[in-house]
Amino acid sequence: xxxxxxxxxxxxxxxxxxxxxxxxxxxxxxxxxxxxxxxxxxxxxxxxxxxxxxxxxxxxxxxxxxxxxxxxxxxxxxxxxxxxxxxxxxxxxxxxxxxxxxxxxxxxxxxxxxxxxxxxxxxxxxxxxxxxx
Length: 133
Ligand SMILES: [Zn+2]
Hints:
4-stranded antiparallel sheet; alpha+beta; 2 domains; 46% helix; binds zinc ion; single chain
């Protein structure tokens, strides 16, 4: 479960309160966790997708919502859920490429690129064209 004191610092009283009501009335229709990445769907007038990246399973590293607002009630609803319930890791699930990229550390990515540059000549050529020299 995440540290609720930490994330609540960033929320306006009203969005936080509405989000709490949304959570309690079961408007978080779907939530799944893949290591540090949480994807959720919150039902409002429409369904809104909320994406959260956690740090140490305890703090919010980044968060976004389809509604486009900063610190919205949809985010707050998901964060109230994460503060009150354990969402188990869904390890074997297919992950979106975007989520994989979000999860990777820079040095992991660089070492993979180096390996590909050695083994894949087409990749090597495209890499040179893209980044010059
Ligand atoms: Zn929202």
